[in-house]
Write a structure and sequence with these properties.
The chain is of the alpha+beta class. Helices cover 23% and strands 29% of the residues.
Length: 666
């Protein structure tokens, strides 16, 4: 039933109220019991709506995904409503997720003529919308907002703010007040309207900024865009807002005032000040075919640093099929980047390729996965002698001495999370939630002998604080040996239905090579557990959704966590005897992927590149940078599409940056 009393309480004109009531009524009729609630947030909910320029921000909560008929009906409703509605549709499960980016069903923008936009990578803005709904949302249909939406953890909100900051000045009509809102959020760990943020800033900020904020408030009151300063003059104000917001929060923690609302889920981290210092870059692969390497935790460079491995394919923008075969090869950096073909593979995926890598402990052997005679196999090739042998098992992670490997069930991974498994062989346990004959195998790279050492059923029986695993479809992936080869880590993942491909939950475990002494490394407090790398034989660097940061986690089963860098999710590696960390991030609203170097002893932070990624590179076939480090730690190789000729490989020389910082520190 439409809550007309709540609609009447909104501060807006009669036509907006009538349009909103009609919109909710038509949604309820079209979606029936699948519609749980319709909630207004943003300027209309917070009492500073401008009929001439403001959109009506709406979150529609669903019980489950919409079918084609329902989607068509929703699009028609948006085309037929005169009110400019900016709507995000989420299931109740998605609304309760603290993943970042946040999963959503779809969005419809007010200027899209009812076009439904799906976001397979998730939304980097929605956690802010959800927090706004929790704090100030108005129920137009359904129960009160807090009956469906919980508070967003600060780590996730901080990730949103850090993502949004570089976009505020070029993207928004009211950048001064938007920056005030960011400062308010950093200081108070909650949200407010642009108007209230500006008034708060007048009380909290220095006199230098008063005229600019007062003019911005006056223009906002008239529904006008800001004209207070050109974009380049706002950059110092942006830095001031962030620093002042964080300073005010720290002061409030030392002695709370009546104006401060404490949050209990906050762990304070400093986002380092970033200096732009572009690295020199060289394209080392050429079209018309496409080239890439994939994941960041494999040895792409040979021990001398002369040869760089890669894969070659003649299509993009679709899933691989059983008939798609790629070439594997290496690039000779000392011979004008000459491509040397080494073989082919029909067992590959976009994100991790065919596990192509140099064999640790060898100067001349490479290995990669393939499919032959109805099974996945691994080829081991000596590139100097041409001697090649094949073992009857694919590999996932190779031990540091190159003698053994561990592997997962690529059939099941392909069924449960496309983009990381291999096409061509069906999962024989597709209908089972946690089979006892699928899991992780050890592989002897000399003899080819394999042994099932950990089963899905075995790990599913380990108690989980946040889910009933008896109802989850489960799989293992992302296996990685520690630096001394004594243990390996793996992700235990599951989904409760067959919805969107990235809507899953995760725990991280480690074990001895023989599968014994299984330890829960982290359950992420029920939040996202993403990319990781070993720091040393007993500690991992993991990106965790709570607290929205890279964190050092010991492999001792204690579950302790030491956040080290507040950041968006990315792929991290160490170089320079662990003195430096390299990491990337996913594209922001400007569709650029940043690449960062962090000097750990000093905390100095450098953006060494930004790489354009067109919107068609998304989901399963996106092209992440995945920075890989040369043996001497002076060069990086990335995959990128920024030059417009598909995915290609690029070499970055960071030696100048490393030397300049080392000289400065000494």
């Amino acid at each position: 039933m439409i809550n007309e009393e709540n609609i009447e309480s909104l501060v807006c004109d009669r036509s907006t109220k009538s349009g909103l009531s009609e919109y909710a009524q038509r949604l309820a009729e079209a979606l029936g019991e699948n519609l749980l609630g319709v909630y207004v947030h943003g300027s209309l909910a917070r009492g500073c709506f401008h009929e001439s320029v403001s959109d009506v921000d709406v979150i529609a909560v669903l019980d489950g995904a919409c079918d084609r008929v329902a989607l068509s009906a929703v699009g028609s409703i948006h085309r037929g409503i005169a009110v400019p509605i900016d709507a995000t549709f989420v299931t109740q499960a998605q609304l309760q997720s603290d993943a970042f980016p946040a999963p959503v069903e779809f969005v419809i923008k007010p200027d899209s003529d009812g076009t439904i936009a799906h976001l397979p990578e998730g939304s980097r803005d929605f956690p802010l919308d959800r927090e706004d709904m929790y704090e100030a949302g108005v129920a137009v249909f359904g129960p009160p907002p807090r009956a469906l939406a919980g508070r967003v953890p600060w780590g996730v909100l901080a990730g949103c703010l850090n993502h949004l900051l570089p976009e505020i000045i070029p993207r928004f009509r009211n950048p001064v007040l938007m920056l005030c809102r960011a400062a308010y959020a950093y200081a108070r760990r909650q949200l407010c309207s642009k108007r209230d943020a500006g008034q708060w800033a007048l009380e909290q900020f220095g006199e230098r900024w008063r005229p600019m904020i007062e003019q911005a408030l006056a223009e906002y009151a008239q529904g006008q865009s800001e004209t207070v300063a050109p974009a380049q003059h706002l950059l110092p104000f942006q830095e001031y807002c962030v620093n002042t917001g964080r300073k005010l929060y720290r002061l409030a923690k030392q002695g709370p005032t009546p104006q401060t609302t404490e949050r209990t889920d906050v762990q304070e981290l400093e986002m380092p000040k970033t200096v732009a210092m572009p690295a020199s870059i060289e394209k080392i692969s050429q079209g018309p075919r496409f080239h890439w390497f994939g994941y960041y935790d494999k040895l792409q460079f040979d021990p001398t640093g002369r040869y760089v491995l890669g894969m070659e394919v003649d299509f993009e923008h679709r899933s691989p099929t059983a008939d798609d075969r790629i070439a594997v090869g290496m690039i000779d950096l000392a011979d004008e980047n000459r491509w040397i073909e080494l073989g082919t593979s029909s067992a590959w995926c976009w994100q991790q390729g065919c596990m192509l890598q140099w064999r640790p402990g060898s100067d001349s052997e490479v290995l990669w996965n393939d499919r032959q005679d109805g099974q996945f196999v691994c080829h081991i090739l000596d590139v100097q002698t041409g001697r090649k042998r094949t073992i009857p098992s694919a590999v996932y992670s190779v031990s540091p001495d190159g003698k053994t490997a561990v592997t997962a069930d690529f059939r099941r991974i392909n069924d449960k999370r496309p983009g990381y498994g291999y096409a061509g062989l069906a999962d024989p346990n597709a209908g089972k939630l946690a089979p006892d004959d699928s899991g992780i195998w050890s592989v002897d790279l000399e003899t080819g002998k394999t042994k099932l050492i950990i089963t899905l059923a075995q790990v599913a029986a380990i108690d989980c604080r946040y889910a009933d695993l008896a109802k989850g479809r489960q799989w293992f992936n992302h296996l990685l040996f520690n630096p001394d080869g004594s243990r390996f880590v793996f992700l235990h993942r599951w989904r409760m239905d067959d919805g969107v491909w990235d809507n899953f939950s995760t725990r991280m475990f480690s074990a001895n090579f023989d599968g014994s002494d299984i330890r829960l490394v982290t359950d992420g407090e029920g939040k996202a557990i993403s990319h990781f790398i070993w720091l040393d034989p007993t500690h991992l660097n993991i990106w965790l959704g709570a607290p929205g940061a890279f964190a050092v986690v010991p492999d001792d089963g204690s579950g302790s966590c030491q956040p080290m860098l507040e950041s968006l999710d990315g792929h991290q590696s160490y170089l320079g005897d662990n003195e430096w960390m390299i990491y990337d991030a996913y594209p922001g609203e400007d569709q650029h992927m940043p690449l960062f170097l962090l000097h750990l002893p000093s905390g100095r932070h450098f953006e060494i590149g930004r790489f354009y990624a067109p919107s068609e590179y998304n989901g399963e076939w996106r092209c992440d940078l995945h920075p890989r480090v040369s043996p001497d730690g002076r060069r990086l190789c990335i995959d990128s599409v920024h030059e417009g000729d598909g995915r290609q490989m690029y070499l970055l020389d960071v030696s100048g940056i490393l030397s300049s910082v080392s000289d400065h520190e000494s």
